[in-house]
Amino acid sequence: MNEQENEEFAFLSRKILELNKQLMESEKVKSRFLSLIASELNNPMTALLGMIPHLTPPAGDPREEIFELAHDEALLLESRIQNLVAASEIESGMMDVTHASVNPEKLVEEALEEFKYKLKRKNISVIVESSLKEKIVTDPKKLYLILKNIIANACDYGDPDAIVNINIVQKGSEIIVTVKNRGHGPNVKYKAQVFTRFAEGMEGSHGLGLGLSIARELCGLIDGKIDYETDETSVTFTVTIPEQAVQADSEACGSNEFLFESFDDAIEL
């Protein structure tokens, strides 16, 4: 390599280092932006969801339908904020793993409550079966978001007038949750596309590129895994998490106690 080539090589090396530095700075700015937006939305949303149930009109009231639509939209917004918060925490590497004693069936029931209007509109029935005899020790916040996202997927893309089956079993040292909906499977070439964040062309098929990607990343943080299988009439997502052989730090009675860390703007009625 002659002198001129050495100079060109050194110049290109400096350029690559500069571009890499700019890319890292850009990633930091994106993470801070996501964290700020999630925080700004989270607190007023907590207050809003606390007030809405107190506005429930009496049965048969003509405003009942409008109320349900408004409440459903608020719950949808809450889900998206939760995913934004999770995405920002994952991006920033600030998501710690906690251990609490929790009943997965209870988390499923609470997640289903947030989709009650969608289930009603599509006339979807949900059958939940659990063979667990005792609570398990895991990270309840992460498990709740994982379950909520795969249940949301089943509600969004399951056939109307059909059944969604949710089963919770223990096999050895693993807890396995399956969510099976009737309908067509994801229209993708590779399975990994379903779990890729903001994957191009995913909208309109299974997943919007955020919820399932977060479910996969959260599974990874608690040493679990997520996968799905399809046949001609149904789609089954399976979440497998290990039974943690550690002492629980606390007991999680429900999702409300761990999903919102700040209640500064909550309004008590």
UniProtKB/TrEMBL annotation:
Record EC number: 2.7.13.3
Reactions it catalyzes: ATP + protein L-histidine = ADP + protein N-phospho-L-histidine
Keywords: ATP-binding, Cell membrane, Kinase, Membrane, Nucleotide-binding, Phosphoprotein, Transferase, Transmembrane, Transmembrane helix, Two-component regulatory system
A GO CC annotation given for this chain: plasma membrane
Entry GO MF terms: ATP binding; phosphorelay sensor kinase activity
Membrane topology summary: Multi-pass membrane protein
Record CDD domains: HisKA
Source organism superkingdom: Bacteria
Location of the Histidine kinase domain: 36-245
Localization, UniProt: Cell membrane
Alphabetized PANTHER family for the sequence: SENSOR HISTIDINE KINASE CPXA (PTHR45528:SF1)
Name the record gives this protein: histidine kinase
Species annotation: Sulfuricurvum kujiense (strain ATCC BAA-921 / DSM 16994 / JCM 11577 / YK-1)
